[in-house]
């Protein structure tokens, strides 16, 4: 008997009919002889509707109360799902984050999991029931208050339960067939990836792949949870995200492909700090100022100093949503830092090539740059990690870049991918 | 400093605007120097909408899951209300039934309160905050499960909190101005009652007055909680429901009016068991059979036996919703009981005249029957308690009966009552 954790996002439980469909799938998994724990998101857009109500009441809702409000969403979906399963003749029990033992810190709206004590979930399984757990929500022991885990919280709930219950697998159900070598809406010949390491998945997620949240992948990697990302609309096998350092996976090495996939991201902007005195400590000073805003800096590039002037330029990318705050904060400190001016550019696109195989293959950068050059696409910034190369281009060339790079690295499938609805959540 | 518990029903918090209006009223009560605890229902029709969702998923939702589902409703309204208050610069904290210590038995959908341990509510008050508590919901310690209190549950929550916190008063906010001597929609000259004993209120509630639920009144009476039923749409004084046996009220006796008010009820039906053998034990046998269905029997009348036949008829009233079940159950036992036939009549109306003053006044029944006779209204059943006389008439005459009785007992006001929207809940 295997223990399977399944996670269903909002689009999979958008209405009564979808809930019944999902219930049927869960029952089938149970009937196949597995123990089943389900983490479920709020129905469709209901979280946004609750947020909207909150903002009708007050422009800045109190964080504790906002969490209390939003957690009503999963309460509804999980109760309906449990009812649906019970009406099919199988025992099911729904649990709030608190009841399922999702213990978090007290940071409302973005709580971190500090402990998982799923005693009641384990009991339900032992009694033959299917356990339905509210995604996205937790409980702080110190305050006794309800918390929420922030974006991608339901994925994290599923992975955390899988880790605590030593599940055999954590299935993430979404509305796409799995992880693709590139976004199939841009690259029709994108291929579904059968297996990918959690390291590679992390890089893809961090660079714009939307199907899995980076936080859930991180949690899975740290706790050795194997993920299976698949569609709730068909029975196709999806993508296995596995931990390459796991004992189990080391025993059965798979030949690492050179490149796992290519991700693109249009959500970032670039700030260039022009004319920074090229003396020690200036970069630190700038990024300390930026850090105070809480903005999430991605790529950083510093030009070689022009010796004659003793000045240099520092560019970095960050989410567009943080742009204005960072500009304002930096401007306030201009005299102190001593830079000449700031440039803001929100017309950039980022492309990231990810693959554990590039660790041992020197020619990857050269091949990437050549492909882009031949397509007439200009590279504005470059940043690399052990298993990733990212480049920044003009926003309107990034999709072209994605297609030529996908082809250049031999990722194209023989036929076009089938594209379903929207993106997963 | 007084401690005031306020209860707001669904119609008082139907949308964001109503919630802000209610928040303002709560803040005013706090600013006047009172400690304030609020019990709140789900917004408008949201409980019905959740029920509807449940029935889309399955015709017979599992009771545990239905409670989990429905309690999402108050979670939403209480969080929004707490946010609204905080945005006005006053501290507020929302609590679920479980967090507020509403401990119940495990009967899902109709749980009874077994203990109230409002430690967190008390702490919030001690820290200067306004406590917002979800009405209608509780928590069973044995199962660790969420429960709901059934119809009128939010009134009961408010009264139970008032009792446990030794509140000075429990204000029940609704969409009418208080308790009236009769339904103002039928009797325009109905008067708002200033003070009424909980005993009288119980009889009125049991006989069709919709503003307060009988269960909440019972709880208030048993625990010596004084209620103030008033409108959330204006600042008029409403109706005080007090315990006549309280020390405090005995010290300040008020002159008891002969009649407190008149209630009518069109929700009942009458079943007559025809041709019952007039031997000992037959009535007991019949009502034991009826009791098994869980139906709530109201009035019972047995005709004098016709000596020649040795047979008698037994009539009783019950909610129309229980009619079919009771008929079926009795028919199944017909041979065993030995009655001739059953008659079912759902075209009856009930009128109840309530007043503690009738205890010491012999002429009340005579006056009632005379008034009805003079109006040409036929009486089909009569039942009396110490402080109430009920009669059953044809359904289509009960409103006429209400008006003539209201006038006959001198209850008419000089001017017509102002009638607001719907009924309270």
Automatic annotation (TrEMBL), chains A, B:
<dbReference type="InterPro" id="IPR045865">
    <property type="entry name" value="ACT-like_dom_sf"/>
</dbReference>
<keyword id="KW-0457">Lysine biosynthesis</keyword>
<dbReference type="InterPro" id="IPR036393">
    <property type="entry name" value="AceGlu_kinase-like_sf"/>
</dbReference>
<dbReference type="InterPro" id="IPR041740">
    <property type="entry name" value="AKii-LysC-BS"/>
</dbReference>
<dbReference type="InterPro" id="IPR002912">
    <property type="entry name" value="ACT_dom"/>
</dbReference>
<dbReference type="GO" id="GO:0005524">
    <property type="term" value="F:ATP binding"/>
</dbReference>
<feature type="binding site">
    <location>
        <begin position="210"/>
        <end position="211"/>
    </location>
    <ligand>
        <name>ATP</name>
    </ligand>
</feature>
<dbReference type="InterPro" id="IPR018042">
    <property type="entry name" value="Aspartate_kinase_CS"/>
</dbReference>
<dbReference type="GO" id="GO:0004072">
    <property type="term" value="F:aspartate kinase activity"/>
</dbReference>
<feature type="binding site">
    <location>
        <begin position="174"/>
        <end position="175"/>
    </location>
    <ligand>
        <name>ATP</name>
    </ligand>
</feature>
<comment type="pathway">
    <text>Amino-acid biosynthesis; L-lysine biosynthesis via DAP pathway; (S)-tetrahydrodipicolinate from L-aspartate: step 1/4.</text>
</comment>
<feature type="binding site">
    <location>
        <begin position="7"/>
        <end position="10"/>
    </location>
    <ligand>
        <name>ATP</name>
    </ligand>
</feature>
<dbReference type="InterPro" id="IPR005260">
    <property type="entry name" value="Asp_kin_monofn"/>
</dbReference>
<keyword id="KW-0220">Diaminopimelate biosynthesis</keyword>
<dbReference type="InterPro" id="IPR054352">
    <property type="entry name" value="ACT_Aspartokinase"/>
</dbReference>
<dbReference type="Pfam" id="PF22468">
    <property type="entry name" value="ACT_9"/>
</dbReference>
<dbReference type="InterPro" id="IPR001048">
    <property type="entry name" value="Asp/Glu/Uridylate_kinase"/>
</dbReference>
<dbReference type="GO" id="GO:0009089">
    <property type="term" value="P:lysine biosynthetic process via diaminopimelate"/>
</dbReference>
<dbReference type="InterPro" id="IPR001341">
    <property type="entry name" value="Asp_kinase"/>
</dbReference>
<feature type="binding site">
    <location>
        <position position="47"/>
    </location>
    <ligand>
        <name>substrate</name>
    </ligand>
</feature>
<dbReference type="GO" id="GO:0019877">
    <property type="term" value="P:diaminopimelate biosynthetic process"/>
</dbReference>
<keyword id="KW-0808">Transferase</keyword>
<protein>
    <recommendedName>
        <fullName>Aspartokinase</fullName>
        <ecNumber>2.7.2.4</ecNumber>
    </recommendedName>
</protein>
<dbReference type="GO" id="GO:0009090">
    <property type="term" value="P:homoserine biosynthetic process"/>
</dbReference>
<dbReference type="Pfam" id="PF00696">
    <property type="entry name" value="AA_kinase"/>
</dbReference>
<dbReference type="GO" id="GO:0005829">
    <property type="term" value="C:cytosol"/>
</dbReference>
<feature type="binding site">
    <location>
        <position position="185"/>
    </location>
    <ligand>
        <name>ATP</name>
    </ligand>
</feature>
<keyword id="KW-0028">Amino-acid biosynthesis</keyword>
<keyword id="KW-0547">Nucleotide-binding</keyword>
<feature type="domain" description="ACT">
    <location>
        <begin position="353"/>
        <end position="425"/>
    </location>
</feature>
<dbReference type="GO" id="GO:0009088">
    <property type="term" value="P:threonine biosynthetic process"/>
</dbReference>
<comment type="pathway">
    <text>Amino-acid biosynthesis; L-methionine biosynthesis via de novo pathway; L-homoserine from L-aspartate: step 1/3.</text>
</comment>
<feature type="domain" description="ACT">
    <location>
        <begin position="271"/>
        <end position="347"/>
    </location>
</feature>
<comment type="similarity">
    <text>Belongs to the aspartokinase family.</text>
</comment>
<keyword id="KW-0418">Kinase</keyword>
<keyword id="KW-0067">ATP-binding</keyword>
<feature type="binding site">
    <location>
        <position position="74"/>
    </location>
    <ligand>
        <name>substrate</name>
    </ligand>
</feature>
<comment type="function">
    <text>Catalyzes the phosphorylation of the beta-carboxyl group of aspartic acid with ATP to yield 4-phospho-L-aspartate, which is involved in the branched biosynthetic pathway leading to the biosynthesis of amino acids lysine, threonine, isoleucine and methionine.</text>
</comment>
């Amino acid at each position: 008997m295997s223990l399977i954790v399944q996670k269903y996002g909002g689009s999979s439980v958008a209405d009564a009919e979808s809930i019944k469909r999902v219930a049927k799938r869960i029952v089938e998994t149970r009937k196949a002889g597995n123990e089943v724990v389900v983490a479920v998101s709020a129905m469709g857009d209901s979280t946004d509707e609750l947020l909207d109500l909150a903002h009708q009441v007050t422009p800045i809702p109190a964080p504790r109360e906002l969490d209390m409000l939003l957690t009503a969403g999963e309460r509804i979906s999980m109760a309906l799902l449990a009812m649906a399963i019970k009406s099919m003749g199988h025992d099911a029990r729904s649990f709030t984050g608190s009841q399922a033992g999702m213990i978090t810190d007290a940071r409302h709206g973005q709580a971190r999991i500090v402990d998982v004590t799923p005693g009641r979930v384990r009991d339900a399984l032992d009694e033959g029931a299917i356990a339905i757990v509210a995604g996205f929500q937790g409980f702080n022991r110190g305050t006794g208050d309800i918390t929420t885990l922030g974006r991608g919280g339901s994925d994290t709930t599923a992975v955390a339960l899988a880790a605590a219950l030593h599940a055999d697998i954590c299935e993430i159900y979404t509305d796409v067939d799995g992880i693709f070598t590139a976004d199939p809406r841009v690259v029709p010949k994108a291929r579904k990836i059968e297996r990918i390491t959690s390291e590679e998945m992390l890089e893809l997620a961090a660079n714009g792949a939307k199907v899995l949240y980076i936080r859930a992948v991180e949690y899975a990697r740290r706790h050795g949870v194997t993920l299976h990302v698949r569609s709730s609309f068909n029975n196709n096998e999806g993508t296995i995200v596995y931990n390459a350092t796991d004992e189990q996976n080391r025993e059965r090495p798979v030949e690492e492909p050179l490149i796992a996939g290519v991700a693109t991201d249009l959500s970032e902007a670039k700030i260039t700090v022009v004319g920074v005195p090229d003396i020690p400590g200036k970069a630190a000073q700038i990024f300390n100022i930026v850090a105070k805003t809480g903005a999430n800096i991605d790529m950083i590039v510093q030009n070689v100093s022009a010796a004659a002037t003793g000045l240099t330029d520092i560019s970095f990318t960050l989410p567009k949503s943080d742009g204005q705050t960072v500009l304002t904060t930096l401007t306030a400190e201009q005299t102190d830092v001593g830079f000449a001016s700031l440039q803001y550019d929100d017309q950039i696109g980022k492309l990231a090539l990810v693959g554990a195989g590039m660790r041992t293959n020197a020619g990857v950068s050269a091949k990437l740059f050549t492909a882009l050059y031949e397509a007439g696409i200009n590279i504005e910034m470059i940043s690399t990690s052990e298993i990733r190369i990212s480049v920044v281009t003009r926003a309107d060339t990034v999709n072209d870049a994605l297609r030529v790079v996908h082809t250049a690295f031999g990722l194209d499938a023989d036929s076009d991918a089938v594209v379903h609805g929207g993106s997963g959540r």
